[in-house]
Amino acid sequence: MKRSFTSYTKGSLPGWIKSDAKQQGGSPPHIVFGIKDNEARICNYEQRQWLYLDHAYFNRGWDRSNFRAVRNGLHLTRLLGRPTDRIDLWGVKLEPWRKTGTEIVLIPPTGAQTAYYRNEGWLMQTISRLEQITARPVATKWGKLSSLREFCKDAWAVVTYASVAGVEAALMGIPVFSTEHCPSWPVCAGKLEDIETPEYSDARLEMAAGLTYASWNAEEMHKVKWVDYQYELLCA
User: Fold this and answer.
1) Do the bridges between strand 215-217 and strand 66-71 make them parallel or antiparallel, or are there none, so unpaired?
2) Element (H, E) at 30
């Protein structure tokens, strides 16, 4: 059966995963679809095994029938050591590190992330700290009215809490200062106090390769090992 997401079918995703897992002879971890309710935070607090579903890391958008699946958290924040065979499939490109630019681009957490992480003070605390450690102007990106690339055309660095934009910026070659909750954490440019002397990680390809094994298309999901999900495809 052909699978694709529309406004009427994306809610079928958990059921499809359970069905595929059953055919594999087991069941997936408890499934949480989206962050808007309190279920993800409860699962994390209770230290349950759970599977979080949301927008994919690459080619985002339900209209593309892509999604991400992350175990026990909102984001994959560690290196998996996966091969690079899915890099081209997702159109992932690494641009050279940029060592120019003027602005600090600040990307705050969404309201839903703030509720999940309970980090209400992060934005103002970060702005205050940046004022103490750098004379560079700070531009805060709210929403998606402009593309990240356009907004970051004069960026020296990006600072974010847990946004997928951290991955996008790092792949563009912009140093990213984030928290351990961000999917770009493996290539973090250092502590915020090092904003003027960022680290330029060599692990971007490895990071991206791992994230491609947390990103799936609806039509390929029957190939994913959902039983004891560990970001793997079934053996051929």
Assistant:
1) antiparallel
2) strand 30-33
- DSSP 8-state class, residue 129: H
The structure's pTM equals 0.93
How many whole angstroms separate alpha carbon 170 and alpha carbon 98? 10
For the stretch 173-193, pLDDT in tens is 999 999 999 999 999 999 999
Contact 207, 216 (CB under 8 A): no
DSSP structure string for 145-183: SS-HHHHTTTEEEEEESS-THHHHHHHHT--EE--TTST
Give alpha helix (H) positions in 51-151.
111-117, 122-133, 148-151
Query: What residue type is assigned to position 196 of the chain?
Result: E
Residue 177 bridge partners (DSSP): 159
Residues in the chain: 236
